[in-house]
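User: Can you fold this complex?
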Amino acid sequence: MSKHTLAVLVENSPGVLARVASLFSRRAYNIDSLAVGPTENPEISRMTIVLNLDGHVLDQVMAQLYKLVNVIAISEMTDASTTKRELLLVKVETGSKATQIAAIVAKFEAIIVNEDAGFMTVQATGEPAQIEGLLRELTPFGIKELVQSGLVALEKGSAALSDRTLSAQGISTLHEIGTQADYQN
Amino acid sequence: MTGASSLVKSLEAAGVDVMFGIPGGAVLPVYDPLFDSTIRHILVRHEQGAGHAATGYAQVTGRVGVCMATSGPGATNLVTPLADAQMDSVPLVAITGQVPSAAIGTDAFQEADIRSITMPITKHNYLITNPDDIPRAIAEAFHIASTGRPGPVLVDIAKDALQKMTNFSYPTSIQFAGYKPQLQPDAQAIRDAVVLIAAAKKPVFYVGGGIIKANASRQLMQIAELLGAPVVTTLMARGAFPDSHNLHLGMPGMHGTVAAVTALQKSDLLITLGARFDDRVTGKLSSFAVHAKVIHADIDPAEIGKNRFADVPIIGDLAQTLNALIPALVAEFKKNKPDLTDWWRQMSSLRSTYPLGYDLPADGSVSPQYVIERIGAISGPDSIYVAGVGQHQMWASQFVKYEKPRTWLNSGGLGTMGYAVPAAMGAKVGMPDTTVWAIDGDGCFQMTNQELVTCALNNIPIKVAIINNESLGMVRQWQTMFYEGRYSNTSLHSKRIPDFVKLADAMGCAGLLCERPEDVDAVIKEAMSINDQPVVVDFRVFRDAMVWPMVAAGTSNDEIMIARDIAPDWDSQEL
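Assistant: Here's the predicted assembly.
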């Protein structure tokens, strides 16, 4: 088992998230994280899905995803070719250790976004390893609560998932409509 | 016009000539313009019947089957046929009424979130709340259902969208951002397949239902005769290749022939055409055809590598794939053609040593296999045979001899008991001049026989053979084999209650009874002579007949048994 990150462009239509979630559930694929949001095109949403699975299952997952009519394009986001980021908000008990915590926060290029009533809320963005490192160092101080976004990823350089849609590749997706008789070969 | 009128006009524009359904509150607006439409609407007695009838219609005609139901329970009653159609890749469009859009999400009367419910069991589905969206949704639904790997599409329409005014305009073209089935096979894949085929010493054509969906039986015949390799046809592919053909070894799988099962097991190359390595075919996957390379041709890329690694995947329409593969093989075989003499010597020996067969009951009662065999022989290969699920289904796949595609219908993937009567009804509507036999079990029949009323009232004269062993026979067989004969809850007492002849009569059908082996032919012929109403024959058969051969669930195909505790005599076979 290893971690794989998929970026998926989907039509921004009702129920798409449920379709994807339902597919992963019924095929017993385990999702580590799923982030979904708008893109530069208002008609298209982008999902970033982190999965823990055997490599040969990945092709199967991608093929199954692509069977969903609302799915437009899929690509694996490899470590080498993409920039990956997570967002963390973590509430730490400050006590008398504010200086020490601030030093750790600075070391991880994080930000203190709120400090009140003996608690400090720290915001960090970074690769998953950085986030994990920060959390490891903050844990001894007492973590009250934390929230993490799912991972998001974007290809480096000029490459873009949106270049891989059928229309971007100049493949016509226009279907002439006939009547039932035409459906018989 | 109203959204409902727009829907009916859209269905007409999509070429719908017949649909099966039941009205109810939320879908009621549709039934008013439907009253004036050219579309024949057949009023069924249960929505499940509408769904299976649409499937039967689709399976025999190759067209899209259409069914309609109201919201809530009407829609949930379609769940089983939709799941059935999804598993067996049947092109269906299901229309459901939904509560008014303002009431959606309030647990309103007869509200069920059928779009969410059917997400995992449809190819795609829609919830329409704006009447202007109806024509496009219908056009897309028919396109999606019938292209690529066929499947069911549900269109759920809120009642207010059916009632509001709209302008009808049926699209001449539609556009999808991502949906584009690949029809044309990759040229390199064809070349790779030729290399494997030319090098094979023990090739087998492993043929699935996709050949029938692709209308590629003619090409299958060409390629099979070109290579001269054994052909096996799965449960969904019976009829795709003539049973009378010398290359045909029959059906593989849990109840397949010894020759077909062993051909796959011992093969060095599976030429897989529109089949999906279902567990009922492979048995224990890790021991399935361990020496075989695999060519896997399918229209659905997600089938590639799902259960079995494919050495050469070929994505595309099977007719186009074979049209490309055949000339490439002709050219290759001019230089180099595999010699299959040794392979055929082994397979011929297995075929002649272990033909399908059955023992007649020692008590003189009627053999269920004999009944089914005689129906097939008397009614012939031009008739359509529709089975339920269980022992009678397996016997119907074994002992009726199929010569043509679209003459054998059954619920293969989902295994839906109760499929036969409504599916036969739909098949008869699609092919009114063809004799349609439902070969059903007494258990299955009691699940959906109400549609015989529909048949009787709508001049749909199907013929139903109830293979009445007064049991849930296949379950009983498993209890015999795996539960020490402890027959928990499998006795149906259906030689006592119900009286199937009276039941048939009550439903406007001719009811016939057959209790003696010597009467079987005469009763079948009598049933064949009645064509002005449906016929139901209660064949009272031997209770303890079992389906053989059998590969027990979860075991290896190598463990095939030809009768209880009897394996083929492998030592005498040169394999």
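The first strand of chain B starts at residue 18 and ends at 21. The two ends of chain B are 71 Å apart (CA to CA).
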